[in-house]
Amino acid sequence: MKALLVSSNQMGEDPPDLPAGIRVSEVAIPAGIKLAPRFDNQLLGGVTVLEGSALRQTEGDWSGGLFRLWKPDRGAVIPVRLIPYCAWANRGVSHMTIWMPRVL
After folding, report:
1. Can you tell me the distance from the alpha carbon of 58 to that of 25, in angstroms, rounded to the nearest whole number?
2. Which residue of 30, 69, 85, 103 lies most exposed, with the fewest beta carbons within 10 A?
């Protein structure tokens, strides 16, 4: 049986989901990513998170434009922690996404 799993990438403060200085919009998922589930009893009373390695693709300068071509690159490898979508807005004001580009 297959099931849909929706996890989010959030800039959580405590504990951090991404390394300092990285925006959620800069995270790309590599093809073949290995995500490991881990129960975190310190997060919201107990939540299973997914941890793995993603890629950082810097956004560059968007001033003066609404659209531009996306030029994928391999980027730097960064640790990422995804939390269940139903739990994302419970740690204060932050940025979040569930749609991350995939890099082949």
Report:
1. 9
2. 69
Residue 6 in tokens: 């929706």
Dump strand ranges (E) for the chain. Answer: 7-10, 27-30, 36-40, 47-56, 76-84, 96-97, 102-103
Q: What is the pLDDT of residue 60?
A: 74
Residue 66 lies in a domain: no
Judge whether 17 and 83 are in contact, CB under 8 Å: yes
Residues forming a β-bridge with 83: 8
Low-confidence ranges of the chain (pLDDT < 50): 1-4
Structure tokens at 76: 């730097």
Residue 45 located in a structural domain: yes
Residue 65 lies in a domain: no
| Bond prior to 19 in cis (omega within 30° of 0) | no
| Domain coverage including residue 40 | 8-60+71-92
